[in-house]
Amino acid sequence: MAELVVKNRKLTFVADSVQDDKFDLKKLQKEVAALRQQFQNLTPAQPYIVVNTTYNRFRLYKNRKLIREGFCSTGSYTLLKSHDKRQWIFHTPKGMYKVLGKVTNPVWRRPDWSYVEEGLPIPSANDPSRWEAGVLGDYALSIGDGYLIHGTIYKRFLGMPVTHGCIRMNDEDLEAVYKTLDLGSKVYIY
């Protein structure tokens, strides 16, 4: 038995247990160091973004450190059916993607579903009415299959699942994401 006085309180303990605790502490420190290394090996060194579709939030990382987080909007999971029996479910795909393209002042090419959604006749594929400037914000980053990270004219809906599958952000967040991510940067969506 050993005794120790701390702040006028006498503590009694078994001396052998202190030695065991020191051994356990060293063992735990080694385990923590190994786990940190494993985490470093699994975490991209280059900038990346993580999008949470449940809470409509994003986190932007650079040099393995969080540099920005905020609200975004992702897919609404709405089902749209056309009179000719085509249908679309507006979801944001989950998984690991890469930035495949970056554009400033993007122009949106309206897909067929946008006309169906508004009850309008669908024009031919090259009809000039399909092109709309100013609705995607100042920047757009492509992650493939028509999915973009872009701005929005509907800022009041940020933080809600209201998109047709793209990831929408406010102007300041989008600019930071655009300037931070490079072609090939990872985009994790869950």
Q: How would you describe this structure to a colleague?
A:
The strands form five sheets. Strands 5-4-3-15-8 form a five-stranded mixed beta sheet, covered by helices on one side. It has a four-stranded mixed beta sheet with strand order 9-12-13-14, with helices on one face. It has a two-stranded antiparallel sheet with strand order 1-2. It is α+β, with helices and mostly antiparallel strands and 190 residues long. Strand 12 (139-144) and strand 13 form a beta hairpin. It is elongated. The N and C termini lie far apart (54 Å). It has helices spanning 15-42, 112-117, 171-180; strands at 2-6, 9-13, 48-52, 57-62, 65-71, 79-81, 87-89, 95-98, 101-104, 107-109, 131-133, 139-144, 147-150, 167-168, 186-189. It has three helices and 15 strands.
* Structural Rg: 26 Å
Number of domains: 2
The CATH class label of the largest domain is Mainly Beta
User: Which whole number gives the mean pLDDT?
Assistant: 93
CATH superfamily of the largest domain: L,D-transpeptidase catalytic domain-like
CATH fold category name of the largest domain:
L,D-transpeptidase catalytic domain-like
The neighbouring-strand order within the major sheet is 5-4-3-15-8
Q: Low-confidence runs (pLDDT<50, min 5 residues)?
A: none
Give the second-level CATH assignment, the architecture of the largest domain. Answer: Beta Barrel
- Helix share, percent: 10-25%
Number of DSSP-assigned strands: 15
What's the number of helices?
A: 3
Please describe the biggest sheet, giving its number of strands, its sense, and whether it closes into a barrel.
Answer: 5 strands, mixed
Shape call: elongated
The topology string of helices and strands comes to EEHEEEEEEEEHEEEEHE
Distance between the termini: 54 Å
Structural class of the helices, strands and pairings?
alpha+beta
The percent range for strand residues is: 25-35%
